[in-house]
């Protein structure tokens, strides 16, 4: 078995564990919660703009020159970035639905039913998201253990942000059920990834969608409430991770 495959399997369990133990790490850690989330957001955004999008840009040539259906649909390289925007917009819509549901119902029973429905809809969307992340562990645009490490490191911290959002919106329901489902989704996606192959063109599309999704899911914890964010921690995360990428 190749070293990259072994590393991808190991990282799949690390990513799954991030959801299971993220709450416990924050509970016993010394760093304030907002510092942790801001730092994680900086790393995640740096990963997208400094590493992931350049890889997608290189893969765009495969998409444009491809003769398969996806290649014909994305006949110009700029079309792939529509997928980046789609990923960003899709999760913006999910976030808006979850946020508005907390204030848009009348009566305790109606509110409880609505929140339960939104919880499962929210969880289902991120189950697919986590499955994609697990799948892409075995289908990186750039091969090698180092590239896998940078991917896994950024995603682990990104999961800290996702965990924080779920705990804020859904509390005990997420702790009892949601975190286990999201952890399992990573492993299921990884299992599919190790057993299947994918052409270069659709792979570029998947990474483009992931790029837009990661950007929104990272900055959403920063922008809506700047008083609760920590720009210095965000800057440290973005700058430090960027420096590591440039030195690698």
UniProtKB/TrEMBL annotation:
Keywords, in A-Z order: Membrane, Transmembrane, Transmembrane helix
TM ranges: 6-23, 35-53, 78-98, 119-138, 144-166, 178-211, 231-247
Originating organism: Halomarina halobia
Protein name as it appears in the record: ZIP family metal transporter
């Amino acid at each position: 078995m190749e070293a990259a495959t072994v590393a991808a399997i190991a990282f799949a369990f690390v990513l799954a564990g991030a959801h299971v133990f993220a709450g416990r790490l924050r509970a016993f850690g010394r760093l304030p919660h907002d510092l942790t989330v801001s730092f994680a957001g900086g790393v995640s955004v740096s990963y997208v703009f400094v590493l992931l999008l350049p890889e997608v840009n290189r893969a765009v040539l495969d998409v444009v020159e491809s003769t398969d259906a996806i290649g014909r649909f994305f006949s110009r390289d700029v079309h792939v970035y529509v997928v980046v925007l789609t990923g960003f917009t899709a999760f913006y819509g999910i976030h808006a639905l979850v946020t508005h549901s907390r204030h848009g119902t009348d009566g305790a029973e109606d509110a409880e039913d609505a929140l339960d429905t939104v919880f499962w809809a929210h969880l289902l969307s991120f189950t697919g998201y986590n499955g994609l992340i697990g799948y892409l562990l075995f289908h990186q645009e750039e091969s090698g253990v180092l590239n896998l490490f940078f991917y896994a490191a950024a995603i682990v911290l990104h999961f800290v942000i996702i965990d924080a959002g779920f705990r804020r919106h859904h509390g005990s329901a997420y702790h009892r059920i949601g975190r286990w489902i999201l952890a399992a989704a990573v492993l299921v996606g990884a299992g599919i990834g190790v057993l299947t192959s994918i052409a270069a063109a659709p792979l570029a599309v998947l990474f483009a969608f992931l790029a837009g999704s990661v950007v929104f899911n990272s900055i959403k914890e920063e922008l809506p409430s700047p008083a609760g964010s920590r720009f210095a921690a965000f800057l440290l995360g973005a700058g430090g991770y960027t420096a590591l990428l440039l030195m690698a």
